[in-house]
């Protein structure tokens, strides 16, 4: 595998470094937002659901928009650089939020940046490698992305341990964000082998195969039970985990995902994407059931969250590689736009549903409903969307 990794194009490695720096900034703040809401802005789970749901839903719509334009214009760098720049500006400004609506506006700007860059970046990554190496390329990218997600929470933990105020910690996100933008400027716009498509955009997904459309529907069901990860951190706090350990717990998730993303995603190149995705969704369902029923055993949080990292490692790269397996090459940006739209737009009702169930009926019901969505989605993926074994070479048949 080492030889294959070293043989990947420079574009893959550069995009990975950009994600590493960007996520160092993003994940420095991510586990602190629930703490900031609860202890500084005095807001609860419902406000968290509104903030994350609206921010991610908007991001998802822009991912489709940017993906379509990337196909139309055969350009990706403008969207990538612009997206990372907007996020780098918005994150440090959260230090000056005095009420949760202001925090919502800044999270909104941060997610707009993500929406502009994600689909063009994914299309660029998929087109930069041979189809037989897509799992490996996306796995490496996710591993470097998660490496940044390890660095960020560790820095946050150290700053909390030194009694640095939460507002001051938000300002530290400016440095890695600026480095990410500088690296993004170094990306060279590739020349496309395929002619630029001028086909009109279709809300009915005209031009895409049936398997891709069914995959999106199943993904929508899974996402309905996949609300913001901040609820997981809020649950850990509720179960009695000290504040300074919250970022460390999220760093554990990212560490496991970082270590296993590349080998597991590369495994999907040989065994097929579906097997990896099904395994990951099963782990997700079990994780949510146990976390929702946990009566206060804080020691159990550490192996549980490590298992959540395995879910991320098994699915993140395989799910994105499967998009490229199923979609026409000329519509790759649009395909990732639809994928990211589906995965993110449902986060609004998912977060609102989860936050509402938690606040009105307790965490057990909220986590139980999420687990049921994941397990049902796994069954539909296996028996309806993609019956039989599907390898990367079989996607477009």
TrEMBL record:
GO CC terms in record: membrane
SUPFAM superfamilies listed in its UniProt record: MFS general substrate transporter
Locations listed in the record: Membrane
Pfam families hit by this protein: MFS_1
Residue intervals of the Major facilitator superfamily (MFS) profile domain: 1-389
Predominant localisation class: membrane
Protein topology in the membrane: Multi-pass membrane protein
InterPro entries in the cross-refs: MFS, MFS_dom, MFS_trans_sf, Sugar_transporter_CS
Keyword terms: Membrane, Transmembrane, Transmembrane helix
Protein origin, superkingdom: Bacteria
GO molecular function, one term: transmembrane transporter activity
PANTHER family for the chain: C-METHYLTRANSFERASE, MAJOR FACILITATOR SUPERFAMILY TRANSPORTER
Name of protein: Major facilitator superfamily MFS_1
Lineage of producing organism: Bacteria, Pseudomonadati, Pseudomonadota, Gammaproteobacteria, Candidatus Competibacteraceae
């Amino acid at each position: 595998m080492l030889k294959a990794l070293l043989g990947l194009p420079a574009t893959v490695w550069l995009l990975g470094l950009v994600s590493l720096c960007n996520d160092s900034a993003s994940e420095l703040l991510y586990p602190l937002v629930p703490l900031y809401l609860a202890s500084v802005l005095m807001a609860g789970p419902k406000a968290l659901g509104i903030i994350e749901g609206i921010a991610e839903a908007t991001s998802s719509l822009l991912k489709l928009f940017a993906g379509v334009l990337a196909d139309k214009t055969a350009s990706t760098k403008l969207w990538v650089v612009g997206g990372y720049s907007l996020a780098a500006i918005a994150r440090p400004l959260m230090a000056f939020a005095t009420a949760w609506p202001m925090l919502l506006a800044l999270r909104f700007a941060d997610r707009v940046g993500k929406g502009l860059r994600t689909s063009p970046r994914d299309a660029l990554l998929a087109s930069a490698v041979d189809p037989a190496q897509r799992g490996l390329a996306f796995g490496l990218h996710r591993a470097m992305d998660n490496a940044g997600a390890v660095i960020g929470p560790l820095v946050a933990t150290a700053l909390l341990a030194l009694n640095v105020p939460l507002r001051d910690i938000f300002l530290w996100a400016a440095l890695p964000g600026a480095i990410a933008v500088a690296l993004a400027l170094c990306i060279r716009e590739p020349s496309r082998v395929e002619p630029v498509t001028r086909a009109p955009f279709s809300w009915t997904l005209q031009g895409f195969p049936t398997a891709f459309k069914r995959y999106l529907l199943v993904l929508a069901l899974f996402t309905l039970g996949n609300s913001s990860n901040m609820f997981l951190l809020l649950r850990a706090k509720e179960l009695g985990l000290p504040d300074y350990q919250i970022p460390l717990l999220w760093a554990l998730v990212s560490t496991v995902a970082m270590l296993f993303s590349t080998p597991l995603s590369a495994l999907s190149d040989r065994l097929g994407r579906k097997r990896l995705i099904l395994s990951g969704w099963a782990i997700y369902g079990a994780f949510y059931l146990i976390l929702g029923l946990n009566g206060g055993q804080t020691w159990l949080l550490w192996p549980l969250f490590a298992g959540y990292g395995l879910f991320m490692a098994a699915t993140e790269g395989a799910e994105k590689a499967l998009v490229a397996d199923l979609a026409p090459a000329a519509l790759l940006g649009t395909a990732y736009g639809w994928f990211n739209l589906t995965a993110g737009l449902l986060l609004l009702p998912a977060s609102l549903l989860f936050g509402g169930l938690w606040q009105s009926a307790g965490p057990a019901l909220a986590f139980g409903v999420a687990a049921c969505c994941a397990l049902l989605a796994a069954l539909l993926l296996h028996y309806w969307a993609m019956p039989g074994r599907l390898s990367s070479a079989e996607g477009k048949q």
